[in-house]
Amino acid sequence: MPPDNLTQVADFILVGFPGGEEIQVLLSLVFLVAYVLTVTENVMIVVLVWTNLQLHKPMYMFLGNLSFLEIWYVTVTVPNVLVSLVTKKQSISFTGCMAQLFFFLALACSECTLLAVMAYDRYVAICNPLQYLIIMDHSLCTHLAVGSWLSGFLIATGKVYFISRQTYCGPNIINHFFCDVSPLLQLSCSDVSAAELMDFLLALLILLVPLIVIMASYVCIISAVLGIPSAQGRHKAFSTCVSHLLVVMVFYTASLFIYARPQSIDSFSSYKLISVVYTILTPLINPIIYCLRNQEFIFVLRKTIPWRAMLS
Ligand SMILES: *[C@@H]1O[C@H](CO)[C@@H](O)[C@H](O)[C@H]1NC(C)=O
After folding, report:
1. 51 within ligand 1 shell (Cβ under 6 A)
2. Which of 46, 61, 141 gets mutated to test ligand 1 (max ligand atoms within 8 A of its CB)?
3. Positive or negative CA dihedral for 17, 248, 112, 107?
4. CA torsion 197→253→12→29, rounded to 10°?
């Protein structure tokens, strides 16, 4: 129990990035461009999937969900970083900090399950092609999509419940650019062991279960693909999975690195750098990975955007 005479801090200071005025201006520009690009790309994917009957297939519906998720995922952190870079106002209220943490975790956890759902979709498409449309019917797709979002928000509720019940009596300086789990727990003046254990167990659950589903799906996919006699057939079957596999690898490398990091190593500059990768870079490159590799998507893009058609 925390001592009674310690009072809870009312707000936190997010330190953000070190460096002089030029670096701050440069960072603001980089973040602004990255943000605008990410939102534009992902909105484009959602709109294309929704407006083209040709893309009303489970794979693209889930891709639409992923893009929709990533629009909010960057919006939870980046605009706040931009505002504080420009206005030099670094404080965030306790409630604001917890809200940011909650939405950030909820979206990150939903992404884990959504990636597993997308792997399962590819597994059915390749290992059970004749029954694909019967198995992945509208009802199952809706359940899988809703389930991904629900599981993410539930896990985040559990984590934030424990973290918000800690006492924070100061200092209130968070050496990070958004409210994340471990920088916050380091500031707690009450016993963090229960919160840390819960955080670890929930992280394990939400990272490992989807990872097992993804790996099992790919074991089946790869053995099915290797059984296809013609090289062209193998290539065609596997090409729909390559983008998903790339996205999974980027996402899981960053997440596992964050969670598998020993608590004692407090190299916060590398922690910040990896955080930049998974908060900003991943949502920016995912649509590119998906769309540039996908013939069907490129075709719809050409058809939909008039100036593209005029050029080609
Ligand atoms: C998410 O997936 C479900 C199920 O396929 C679909 O009905 C819904 O429209 C998708 N949402 C977005 C934003 O694409």
Report:
1. no
2. 61
3. positive
4. -170
Q: What are the tens digits of pLDDT across the range 3-50?
A: 555 678 889 999 888 778 888 899 899 999 999 999 999 999 999 999
Q: Which atom of ligand 1 is nearest to the CA of 68?
A: 13
Tell me if 64 CB under 6 Å of ligand 1: yes
pLDDT digits (tens, 9 = 90+) for 109-161: 999 999 999 999 999 999 998 999 999 999 999 999 999 999 999 999 999 99
67 in contact with ligand 1, CB cutoff 6 A: no
- Domains observed in the chain: 11-311 (1.20.1070.10)
Q: Range with the lowest mean pLDDT among 1-10, 74-83, 100-109, 135-144?
A: 1-10
Distance between CA atoms of residues 210 and 7, nearest Å: 40
137 alpha carbon – ligand 1 mean position (Å): 13
pLDDT of amino acid 1: 47
pLDDT tens readout for residues 279-289: 888 899 888 88
Ligand 1 site, residue 105, Cβ cutoff 6 A: no
Strand order in the sheet with 11-14: 91-93, 11-14, 173-174
**Is the CB of 65 inside a 6 Å radius of any atom of ligand 1?**
yes
